[in-house]
Specification:
The protein has three helices and four strands, in the order H-H-E-E-H-E-E. It is mainly α.
Length: 141
């Protein structure tokens, strides 16, 4: 089993629960904004928010990466926003995993609050140099 380094310090296994999604194929910019939107919310409220993003009912405020992002009337405090559906779906999978871990540890998932969420870009594989008469953008694995 791999050991991952986490940016959250002060983890207590009796009180805290953690789940992570690694190497998920989503936009890192949208993942950062979604992570910022769910931080501090109770677990059921965060899942409900992300499921409403999937159905295009509630947008996510884009605070840092907001160039060429339209204004949304549903957002109260911050006007720029979007519907990152693919990212929301990936975060819902991680939060449902977190919910099942809570049930396994004997904690009440209704009382769980998200105290830390972050997004990191995964590994990058640079393109290989093209061979003669081959496509110019071939990626090495």
């Amino acid at each position: 089993m791999p050991e991952f380094a986490y940016s959250f310090q002060g983890f207590d296994p009796a009180v805290h629960v953690r789940a992570s999604g690694r190497e998920v194929n989503v936009s890192p910019k949208a993942a950062r904004e979604v992570a910022l939107a769910i931080r501090g919310k109770p677990l059921p409220e965060a899942i409900e928010l992300l499921e409403s993003v999937e159905t295009l009912k509630m947008p996510i405020a884009f605070r840092r990466h907001k160039l060429k992002v339209g204004h949304r009337s549903e957002l109260a405090g911050f006007p720029s926003g979007s519907y990152p559906v693919k990212t929301a779906r990936a975060f819902v999978d991680v939060l449902k995993n977190l919910q099942s871990i809570c049930e396994f540890k004997g904690l009440d998932p209704e009382r769980v609050r998200i105290i830390h969420s972050s997004a990191y870009a995964g590994r990058y594989s640079p393109p290989c140099p093209p061979k003669k008469e081959a496509p110019s953008r071939v990626y090495c694995r």
